[in-house]
Amino acid sequence: MEFEHFFIISCLLWAFVLLMSAAPRGTLGRWLTGRKNRSGLSISRFVEIREKHKSFAEVEESLRKSGIEGCELIVGVDFFAAGRNVHARSVSGEPNPHKTVLRAIAQSLAPLNVGGDISPYGFGDSTTRDLDVFSFNADEAPCRGPEVLLARYEELAASGQMEPSSPRSFAPLIRRAVDMVASTGNRFHVLLIVTAGEIGATEELETAAALLEASKYPLSVICVGVGDGPFGQLRTMGDRTPRRAMDNFEFIEFRGIRQMAERIPTFGSLPSAGGASLGAGQRLASHGGEPKGGLQRGFSATGEAFLAALAMCALNEVPRHMQGMAKSGLFSRAGATASGGSAARRRRPPLPPPDGGGLAGLANSGLA
Question: Residue 5, class by beta-carbon neighbours within 10 Å (0-12 exposed, 13-18 middle, 19+ buried)?
Fold first, then answer.
């Protein structure tokens, strides 16, 4: 009789183990405890985004379904490539990848952006080097909505006031974003970094330290590489920063995503942005190699369908980031800082805009 009881219990335990191995991660904890984090948010609330997207409205709907109800947007644009006229192409009417990325993310998040303000910064020029960022507008005034942001970016790109500098670093920008999150009582923020290449080895250590600090705040860092790169370092940066409180960094490469969109008709329905951090050749191979039939007819890198798909490749991991934040109770630590000090603690203030801040008067007007 004892053997029969032992056998039955063993079978039940094995069945339970098999059931848990097939269940989504975190299911056991939720079943046993119905656990919510200290902020009262359900850890299972934020879900992965897998739908097909062809419009900004569909992006908004998908983000809301994933559990994102609101956010604030901080933007950092790398002006290291200013000397190669990569930015100035937007003035002549050619598609500019920096502007395309800014429009895709800012427009997609606009309905969720609390207050509608976007806080824009520049880095990578001879004034900021690896120590500072500059504000797009005088007195660090935000831009009211995507169109004002794009207008101000266009003006800076055309100003000719910036010279590229080496070294450059993401650390000052990430730390500025950390201070902004703390100053709002730990409201959720997305930091978008648009960069033209890698950073130096020493600056990578500083950036890793900044990401480690940022992992103690509700801040999701999305980095988009534009131009020719190289980007090998950025593709693995998250993996090389293992001591973070949670995963808070995602990198994608614009050129590879565009190549996919040009050649794969179902690009908008690809299941995950994880592959987007691979090189274009690797990514195309992972979806059956070089698509047959050449470029899609009527493809436009400035069309809403591509911009929506680009935005979802960039934002696909944000719900998972937020799940980690909720699990760690970051949304309830209002006013805290990584070192336990006051939220008012500030580092080096941003530099003024290189051209004197020509659109500062428009920053809060809502006019482009």
Answer: exposed
